[in-house]
Write a structure and sequence with these properties.
heterotrimer, A alpha/beta (334), B mainly alpha (295), C mainly alpha (305), A: 334 residues, alpha/beta, Rossmann fold, eight-stranded mixed beta sheet, four-stranded antiparallel beta sheet, 12 helices, 14 strands, globular, B: 295 residues, mainly alpha, MetI-like fold, binds adenosine-5'-triphosphate, binds magnesium ion
Amino acid sequence: MSAADGRLLDVASLAVQLPVGGELRTVLHDVSFHIGPGEALGLVGESGSGKSMTARAIARLLPAGAVTTGTISYAGGDVTALKGAALRSYRAEVAMVFQDPRAHINPVRRIGDFMTEALRTNHGVSKADAVARAIGLLAEVGIADGQRRLEQHPHELSGGLLQRVMIASALLTEPRLLLADEPTTALDVTTQADVMAILDDLRRERGMALLFITHDLELASAVCDRTAVMYAGQLVEQRTSSQLHDDPLHPYTAGLVGARPRIDGDVTRLAAIPGRPRSAYEAPAGCAFADRCEHVEDACGEARPPLEPIEDGFVRCRRATELRGMLRAGGRHG
Amino acid sequence: MSLVELPTTAVPPARRRLAGRGLPLLRGTGLVGHLCAIVLLGALLVAVFGAAIAPHDPDLTNLSFAFVGRFQDHYLGFDSQGRDLLSRLLAGARTSILGPLVVVLLSMLFGTVLAIATAWKGGRFDTIVSAALDVLFAFPAIVLAIIASVVIEPGLKAASLALSVAYTPYIARVLRSAALRERSRDYIAALEVQGLRAWVICVRHLGRNMLPIIVAQGTILFGYAMVDLAAISFLGLGVQPPQADWGVMVATGQSGVLQGYPMESLCAGLCIVVVVIAVNLLGERLSDRSTLVTR
Amino acid sequence: MLIVTLFVASFAIYAAMYLAPGNPIAALTGGRTPTPQAIQVLEERYHLNDPFLVRYVRWLGNALTGDLGVSIPLRSDVSTLIRQRIGTTVQLVAFASLIIVVVGIGLGVLGGLRRGIVDNVVIVLSTLSAAVPSFVASIILLSVFAVNLGWFPVLGGGDGFVDQVRHLTLPAFALAFSSIALVARITRASVREEMGREHVQTAISRGIPYRLIVRRHVMRNAAIPITTIVGITVASLFAASAVVERAFTLNGIGAYLIQAALSKDIAVVQGISLVIVAVFVVVNAIVDFLYATLDPRVSLGTSAS
Ligand SMILES: Nc1ncnc2c1ncn2[C@@H]1O[C@H](COP(=O)(O)OP(=O)(O)OP(=O)(O)O)[C@@H](O)[C@H]1O
Ligand SMILES: [Mg+2]
């Protein structure tokens, strides 16, 4: 495999186990997807489905003692085997934006130190130069008084400003791939839209690839070319964003599409998926979604269905072809 | 000496599951906690019955036996005055252990009452009491004990009283934040709405729910009290010789140390160290547990 | 706040001593029955008949100018007596502080960064040393290194720098012993806590080398609680040194305070208590100040806790 086949990042059959109380617990199971240069992939799923773990596995930020199987390759090289300087230079090309900027920025150092740290230590950029570039990028993310902000400490900035700072500093080193783990979840609704728009614009300008993690299927569709859906540590479906929304193939995806609060006339309706989300280790033996699926059959409980290619993507459901068209958004109610 | 709240690192889920095992009082303190409790129970028994089970008269001097080592049923030999060392260690446990126990009970009483009262009343009362405690903070325990020894008279009573007062601000400060946390919970408001009297709520509910922290802090404090009280006796301002006491024995044995007979000082010192280790280990575990309970 | 605390503390010290039993005249005349004239002379010289508040105000006023009164048994100026001895105490405390900082923080960082054997050794060492009070440590060190091995002098202060260091080595270690454990534990816990923080993940994700992450993020942030605990510990050493000075018969203010307490030398107990309390309060104020400079989230106004 190499970058020649148009893939910047290639994740294949990724599985991750974490040590919990002396035993290994599966949190990711058979996750496969790829991202081309400049392409944006959305990763959607409920809380605990393993979205963050996927991003952390790619960024090599798994907790100590984690066992990883499967492959993650970046520009043709094996990411899981990287060490020392090679790992650091990989990290220079793959930047991460975290969900909670307040926790993810050192509270006792200045914003300027935070923003210019990587440039100065890893790229040998002079202080004056790094500061100038930081001010430039702050302007691009909509912070006009960059000079002053660089002198401030994180507690003096609002959450929205901090997330812009985080995005600006991720872009400062000109990465080729950005991993954005729910970059707007911690922000209020209006700020969310602003930050998202900035992130989307800057990414397109720079031709940077993006792995965009969110709870929000709609948001993922708006920002990303393709969207993948995770459930209980597995990828259950991956399609072009518009197809996923209009013609979901997995019953879980259909549920997610229906679970969006929508305004139908004058009633707001939330069509929730019955039952509670499962983590990978709690999932039933066969299809992980079997115990919550309204289209379940006896055979669904027998074996884990594989991720099967279908037209523009992949789906993990025995009955995908059979049920096609019946799973329209909110279809269960009509 | 100062009591400091240790930053508690997150407890992994596995520890939480284990929390169900063990004696009710010691639940969640693990094997080490139980072993320490056994050591402490033993120490307490010796403190109460030590003088009675001592094989010889701890005060009987015989200068011709001074510094003589192990001899017949004198298993640890003799001290500088030719008194049986083992008997003196057993007899000395009384003041060395019951003294700090009294200190802990007194300062926990003062500290808890002040903490709950300030947390409950708040406002002016809280400000004034906290300011007074801040002034008290400025007195290191040993200095307070020295002053007490001059004002009252050198002895266990003055020293215990001084230490109880010296520790009160630390205890009050730690427990006050716990009491505030507890006070802000909904159930307290519910009880108030039901028209329960303030002191009933404080004693029956607030106080009882703070019990794990009170027990943990009291245990940790015992270690400090034991060390400080022994130090004061070592200085000659606490328990007065010839009465047997571990702190006093470390001091009276010092002449022997310089002459190459360190048994008396070392044995007495070892007794202190063993009890303090057991108390510290148990206190640490109890306090880990109490932070789990109150979260 | 600092001033108020010191003021109230000085009043408390003076008032407590005023209540102390014992007759200064008897102390002055050493038990002999003095003539009424002699009593009157003494009473006037030492202002024994003035009302309490007058005497307190005079004492405090003099104390502020560095005059702590007269030691009746020694018939000598308390300030001079303290000045002669405080050097030894300051040296001892400074030496012990150095040991606490180097060994305590060193062990703590080691335990915080490494897991497994190194960490367990640190835990066991600090559990042990936390339980050894300074006077027991004094006895053990004396017995092993001075009496048996003869590496260090047994007692006393010594002359000249090298000799003084040699004389102060064992006392300083004895004084530092249990504080090392406290500092090591807080350091270990803080380092560990900081290592697990999200912002450290951010730094790792950007490819910052481990060494720099430890220095710029972990140690820089852990420095806040570490400074606090070291400060509190050092402040308490002045009082604690009394025990060690006495065990090693060092001629410092601590040992002198004990001697004065045993001989009921009121003026000296008052004077030294005041000095120790003042040092304690001032060092704690410095710690608060450092805390506020190290942690930008705390503004100086709110740090006085
Ligand atoms: N340090 C850890 N040790 C063990 N299990 C963990 C750890 N962190 C997370 N998990 C488990 O891994 C699973 C996946 O977690 P992950 O954080 O990837 O979920 P997520 O999809 O990002 O959810 P969210 O939307 O809440 O961020 C969850 O079941 C979680 O309980
Ligand atoms: Mg997540």
